[in-house]
Amino acid sequence: MPRSVNSVASRARRKKIFKHAKGYFGRRKNVWTVAKNAVEKAMQYAYRGRKEKKRNFRALWITRINAGARQHGMSYSQFMGALKKNNIELNRKVLADLAMNHPEAFQAVVDQVK
């Protein structure tokens, strides 16, 4: 009985990896083992990067809120504590946007919690 290999599935699997490796430099784009390793590593970086993006944006928002609060004589922690105490439920993304793009609205929020 002849040996049965599923070349259709094998080729499809390789094509998928080579498609992901398009644009890579040197052998990373056209040699199976090198491309497979490069694409696997890239996917690890992408997975990790999706988590890091959330951290980086939160840090950016906190920095912007802190800068806006300090212009009105409060620190970030004092401001956030006062928000919680006054039951104002604005998230950091919205507060950062107010502090950057709508300073008069941010001033109103600060005046309300003072």
TrEMBL record:
It comes from the Bacteria. GO terms for cellular component: ribonucleoprotein complex; ribosome. Transmembrane segments: none annotated. GO terms for molecular function: rRNA binding; structural constituent of ribosome. SUPFAM superfamilies: Ribosomal protein L20 (SSF74731). One of its GO terms (biological process) is translation. Keywords: Ribonucleoprotein, Ribosomal protein, RNA-binding, rRNA-binding. It holds the Pfam family Ribosomal_L20. HAMAP family: Ribosomal_bL20. Binds directly to 23S ribosomal RNA and is necessary for the in vitro assembly process of the 50S ribosomal subunit. It is not involved in the protein synthesizing functions of that subunit. Belongs to the bacterial ribosomal protein bL20 family. NCBIfam families: rplT_bact. This is Large ribosomal subunit protein bL20. The lineage of its organism: Bacteria, Pseudomonadati, Bacteroidota, Flavobacteriia, Flavobacteriales.
